[in-house]
Design a protein that fits this description.
The protein is built from 3 helices and no strands. With 65 residues, the chain is mostly helical. It has one domain.
Length: 65
């Protein structure tokens, strides 16, 4: 599989997981909505999204040598 196809599959899986979490955990969706309104909570959301992105694309890769 080429890297572009893999990236598209990863993005689709990430979106499906997010949609599933919103459906399974409505309080989490309310937290995200509140975070968008209240800037003092928003940095937690940004941190969690950045951590998720790092786990998806960063963990397990071999360092370039």
């Amino acid at each position: 599989m080429n890297p572009r196809g893999r990236a598209i599959i990863q993005i689709c899986i990430l979106l499906a997981v997010l949609a599933g979490l919103v459906l399974l955990f409505p309080p989490a969706f309310r937290f995200v909505e509140m975070a968008a309104r209240e800037l003092r909570y928003f940095w937690w959301l940004v941190l969690l999204v950045a951590l998720a992105i790092w786990f998806i694309w960063g963990v397990g890769r071999k360092p370039k040598s």
